[in-house]
Amino acid sequence: MTIVDRRSFLSQAAVLPLAGAAAASESAEAAESGQYGALMAAERISIKHAMADSGIGAAAICLVHQGRPVWIEGFGMAADRAVDPDTLFSIQSTSKSFAAVAVLLAVQDGLLDLDVPITRYWPEFRVNSRFEATPGDRITLRLLLANRAGFTHEAPIGNNYDPAAPNFAAHVRSISDTWLRFPVGDRYRYSNLGYDLAGHIVERVVGVSYAEWLRRRIFEPLGMRSSTADPRVYLVAANRAAGTHKGYDSIPLVTPLVASGGVWSTARDMAAYAAFLAGRGRWQGRQHLAPELWAEMHSFALGGDYGLGVMRSERAYGKTPLRLLHHRGGGFGFGCNFVYCPEAEIGWAALFNRPALAGYRFGMDLIDKALAGRFGPRTPRLPITSLAPIQLPADRVRALRGHYVGRNVSGTIGATDGKLQFRKDKADSGERLVATAPDEYFAVNVEGETVGYRYYPARDDLPPHLECWEGEASLDYNGGPDDLLGPDRKEWQRYLGSYRVRQWGKPAMDVLVERRHGYLEINGVRLIAETESGLFFTSDGEAVDFRGPTATWRNLVLEPS
Question: What pTM did the predictor assign?
Answer without folding.
Answer: 0.93
